[in-house]
Amino acid sequence: VWDLNKGFCVASIMCASNCNAVTYGDGAGVVVTGHFDGAARVWDVRRKPGNACDPIEVRAHEQHVTSVTAMPNNRAQFLTSGKDHTLKLIDLRGGAQGEVVKTIKASGYRVWTQWANACVSPDGAHVVAGGADGAVFVWSLSDEGLKVTLRGHDAAVATCAWGQSGLATADKNGVAVLWSE
């Protein structure tokens, strides 16, 4: 933990597993980290540094967590993706430890790397993740159903970002594709 006004580290927080992903939940006052042991850990950054060391641990995935994303329309929810080929919606209001409220998957969806990330539409209604075969999967969060599979990559899709202007994806060969509705 850094004191930005003074420019030095005031605390180091260790955890039980290597961290692979992180997101900041601005409105919730938390940082959520994704780990190689399949857990998402929620750190309350409103506490003093010495007291932030006991995170809420949500056992989200059977393998590595590859990305963590804050939901744009709900400060208490986060999306994780995992090397177990699933996406999980975590709700921090589900008791003292938080809970997985949705598991999202599709036939043919395979994660190819431990750093592949998923993203969320600006309105929070859809989630996207790229597959090992170059496909881009778009799910509806309302029914957890696969809405569409987009084809435009010849290599595994590594990353995606969805903004007001549309969806962008990039594959392991460095090819970026811009998608419009």
Structural write-up:
The structure is a single chain. The protein is mainly beta and 181 residues long. It has one domain (17-179): Methylamine Dehydrogenase, Chain H (7 Propeller). Helices cover 0% and strands 48% of the residues. The chain has strands spanning 2-3, 8-9, 19-25, 30-35, 39-44, 56-59, 65-70, 77-82, 87-91, 99-104, 118-120, 126-130, 135-140, 146-151, 157-163, 166-171, 176-179. The strands form five sheets. It has a four-stranded antiparallel β-sheet with strand order 3-4-5-6, with no helix packed on it. The chain has a four-stranded antiparallel β-sheet with strand order 7-8-9-10, with no helix packed on it. Strands 11-12-13-14 form a four-stranded antiparallel β-sheet, with no helix packed on it. The protein is globular, with a radius of gyration of 17 Å. The relative contact order is 0.12. The model has no long low-confidence stretch (mean pLDDT 89).
Per-chain topology:
Elements: E1 2-3, E2 8-9, E3 19-25, E4 30-35, E5 39-44, E6 56-59, E7 65-70, E8 77-82, E9 87-91, E10 99-104, E11 118-120, E12 126-130, E13 135-140, E14 146-151, E15 157-163, E16 166-171, E17 176-179
WD repeats: 121-149
Keywords: WD repeat
InterPro entries: ATG16 (IPR045160), WD40/YVTN_repeat-like_dom_sf (IPR015943), WD40_repeat_dom_sf (IPR036322), WD40_rpt (IPR001680)
Q: In DSSP terms, counting alpha (H) and pi (I) runs of 4 or more, how many helices?
A: 0
Radius of gyration: 17 Å
Largest sheet, strands/sense/barrel: 4 strands, antiparallel
Architecture (CATH level 2) name = 7 Propeller
What's the CATH first level? Mainly Beta
Domain unit count: 1
Give the total of beta strands.
17
Mean pLDDT reading: 89
Q: Would you identify the regions where 5 or more consecutive residues have pLDDT less than 50?
A: none
As a percent range, the share of helical residues equals under 10%
What would you call the structural class? mainly beta
CATH superfamily: YVTN repeat-like/Quinoprotein amine dehydrogenase
Give the helices and strands as they follow along the chain. EEEEEEEEEEEEEEEEE
Looking at the structure, the CATH topology is: Methylamine Dehydrogenase, Chain H
